[in-house]
């Protein structure tokens, strides 16, 4: 399957991968093809929640 996600910031992929590994470690999930979609998805969902919370916090500070 083709990957369609485009990163807006060059070099952000490495930081996102590190973030993903940190969240997976906190959740006790070993990411990979042998892991269930539910487990892998829980990591992605938590990443999204944290990124949104961070963005909202920054947005609130600038107003």
Automatic annotation (TrEMBL):
Top-level taxonomic group: Bacteria
Chain segments annotated as coiled-coil in the UniProt record: none
Protein's GO biological process: DNA topological change
Gene Ontology MF terms: double-stranded DNA binding
InterPro entries xref list: SASP_alpha/beta-type (IPR001448), SASP_alpha/beta-type_CS (IPR018126), SASP_DNA-binding (IPR050847), SASP_sf_alpha/beta (IPR038300)
Gene3D superfamilies in the cross-refs: Small, acid-soluble spore protein, alpha/beta type-like (6.10.10.80)
Keywords assigned by UniProt, alphabetized: DNA-binding
PROSITE patterns noted in UniProt: SASP_1, SASP_2
Family: Belongs to the alpha/beta-type SASP family.
PANTHER family in the record: SMALL, ACID-SOLUBLE SPORE PROTEIN A (PTHR36107:SF1)
Function: SASP are bound to spore DNA. They are double-stranded DNA-binding proteins that cause DNA to change to an a-like conformation. They protect the DNA backbone from chemical and enzymatic cleavage and are thus involved in dormant spore's high resistance to UV light.
Protein name: Small, acid-soluble spore protein, alpha/beta type
Organism, scientific name: Metabacillus mangrovi
């Amino acid at each position: 399957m083709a990957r369609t996600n485009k990163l807006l910031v060059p070099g952000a992929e490495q930081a996102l991968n590190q973030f993903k590994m940190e969240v997976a470690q906190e959740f006790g999930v070993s990411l990979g093809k042998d892991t269930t979609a539910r487990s892998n998805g829980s990591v992605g969902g938590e990443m999204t929640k944290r990124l949104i919370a961070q963005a909202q916090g920054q947005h609130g500070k600038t107003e």
